[in-house]
């Protein structure tokens, strides 16, 4: 299955980009085993409880911004999830096509995480919460497009460079929903209410409405 090897190469590309040579070599070895023996357990085992990727994390100093670090980690996590899904299917003797991947990988999130002032009830969410909310479907589509067209390197590059136009588009759409729901968007999670000064801020979640461009506050 070409999708499997392409996914592994996408993982290796990101590891190479950020000079994670030890881990890039592990992936390269698993690519070789796939090419010679159609071995998927090599890579699956590396992400198991005793695998070498079990505690892997990118170094924060490798990134130019917190934003790039977040999207790189989300992208790499998406490729890992795709590898595990494809590898498991192959191990079970099953095959998947691109329509199956598009239908079952990376469903849109319906819930935005935020905060609420326990005194005046003011609602907040952060820019990172918004990125968390929009990232899964954006990355899933980019990966699926790359697998279908054989252009995974190009699709991952626009995420790594933060130049994918849909990122800002989806941010803006989400912020409009926030404005319509009277949710203030802050750079970071607030530690003090910007409306009344109260320091008791509780966690809150907002459900995307299917009837209007708003969110419905939950557990508030």
**Straight-line distance between termini:** 48 Å
Q: Count of DSSP E strands?
A: 5
Q: Which radius of gyration do the C-alpha atoms yield?
A: 20 Å
Structural category:
alpha+beta
Q: What are the segments in which pLDDT stays under 50 over at least 5 consecutive residues? A: none
In N-to-C order, the SSE pattern is HHHHHEEHHHEEE
Strand content: 5-15%
The total count of helices amounts to 8
Largest sheet: 5 strands, mixed
Question: Mean pLDDT score, rounded?
Answer: 94
Form type: elongated
Explain how this protein is built.
The chain has 220 residues and is of the alpha+beta class. Helix content is 55%, strand content 12%. Helix 1 (2-17) packs parallel to helix 7, helix 6 runs antiparallel to helix 7 and helix 6 (127-149) packs antiparallel against helix 8. The model has no long low-confidence stretch (mean pLDDT 94). A five-stranded mixed β-sheet has the order 3-2-1-4-5. The N and C termini lie far apart (48 Å).
């Amino acid at each position: 299955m070409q999708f499997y090897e392409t996914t592994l190469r996408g993982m290796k590309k990101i590891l190479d980009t950020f000079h994670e040579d030890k881990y890039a070599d592990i992936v390269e070895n698993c690519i070789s085993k796939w090419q010679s023996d159609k071995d998927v357990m090599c890579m699956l085992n590396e992400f198991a409880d005793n695998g070498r990727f079990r505690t892997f994390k990118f170094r924060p100093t490798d990134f130019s911004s917190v934003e790039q670090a977040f999207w790189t980690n989300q992208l790499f996590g998406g490729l890992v999830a795709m590898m595990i899904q494809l590898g498991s299917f192959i191990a079970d003797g099953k095959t998947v096509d691109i329509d199956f991947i598009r239908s079952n990988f990376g469903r849109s999130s319906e819930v935005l995480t935020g905060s609420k002032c326990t005194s005046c009830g003011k609602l907040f969410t952060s820019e990172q919460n918004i990125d968390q909310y929009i990232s899964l479907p954006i990355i899933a589509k980019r990966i699926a497009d790359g697998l279908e067209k054989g252009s995974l390197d190009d699709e991952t590059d626009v995420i790594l460079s933060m130049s994918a136009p849909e990122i800002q588009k989806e941010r803006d759409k989400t912020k409009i929903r926030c404005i319509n729901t009277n949710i203030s968007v802050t750079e970071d999670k607030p530690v003090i209410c910007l409306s009344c000064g109260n320091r008791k801020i509780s966690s809150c979640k907002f459900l995307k409405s299917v009837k209007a461009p708003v969110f419905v506050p939950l557990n508030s």
